[in-house]
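ok so i was messing around last nite and threw this chain in just to see what happens. nothing serious, just curious
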Amino acid sequence: IRLTMLRRRFVAGPPRRFVEPLGVACLVSLVMYLLVGLVGDCHPLPSTVPAGDRSTIFTSAAAQAFCPGDEYNPMGVYFWAGIEDTIKHLFHSNDVGLNKWHLFIYFVVFYVLMCITYGIAVPSGLFLPTICCGAAYGKLVGDLLVSWGWDVSTQTYALMGSAAMLGGIMRMTISLTVILLETTNNVNLGMPIMLTILIAKWTGDLFNIGIYDLHIELKHIPLLEWEPEKDLMTLTAFDIMTKDVVSLPMKPKVEAVVMTLRRSHHGCYPLVNKDGMLLGAILRRHLLRLLHDNAWANTLSHYELVELLDEGEDEILELAAVQANLSETLDLSLYANTAPFTFGPAAPVPRIFATFRSMGLRHLFILDDERVVVGVITRKELCHLEVSGSPSEMLGF
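result:
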């Protein structure tokens, strides 16, 4: 996440976003090549490999790096082979020639490279590298226990290491358990996998939120959680609503619409009568479409109304101010939502929160007893209330 925040600051724009993956690829290739050549050593082929069989991972070009034909390099097996073969090997093989020092180097280096690679402008992914990194860590722990005289299966520890790493990074529980159970096809491992993922998730929650949630906050995406924060449970709509509401009449002048869109940047506007009573609502993009297509002179169909605009907002407003007679009237009753969602000022925030989530709302109007608009609540405002701090504070730095 820290690297992502640095990228947002220093690696901005297409040229830098294009050059960065090239630099990371060169770095990863150089590190892997040097480790295989300097740290790796040659071992005789395992007894399970038939003589002359060139189809196994031990006799591949990656495994026999810097070694004669009847030997293989364990570091080459893990650094140069594909990540799928590496994961399969960590889960199933018990004789790979890797001592604990080699396995420790592989885990540390792979973890650092995974952190550097995640976030560059290529779809590198995080799921498989996390499984591989966790399997190396779990197998290392299993090898340590075996060296201390414990009778344990290092393959099982590799699986639990993957589960712990996935649970700690992604903070998913049920889906990860199902995926790993389907992978192993062993129901007896269900309870250990569940406990491992739960403990990893609880431990991670003590420090920060999950990596995907952190990126949602970094991108400022208005995604609501399942339930509101505890501090919001006792609040009402009056406590969180925006009281300075910008509204339009049902039949405004073109000049009034242009000025309203220029002075504010709201996504939706309530339509009210002269007494302030709510008559309906209309989206900002629909107003822009009406101005773009000269709706004061002709009627638009629903399909024309929702069609995306190619021009920029400022260009449309300038064009409307030039082409239109600003005293022309727009009849918004033909395009407005005449039954928007509304609540009273005393409505509890949990009920409003549940309505936003279940109905997929982006805005909601607050009316008094006379149906006068006294406030508005948006999805972004709810998300802002949920966030207890900045991404930096969530990470603890």
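not much to say yet. The longest strand covers residues 278-283.
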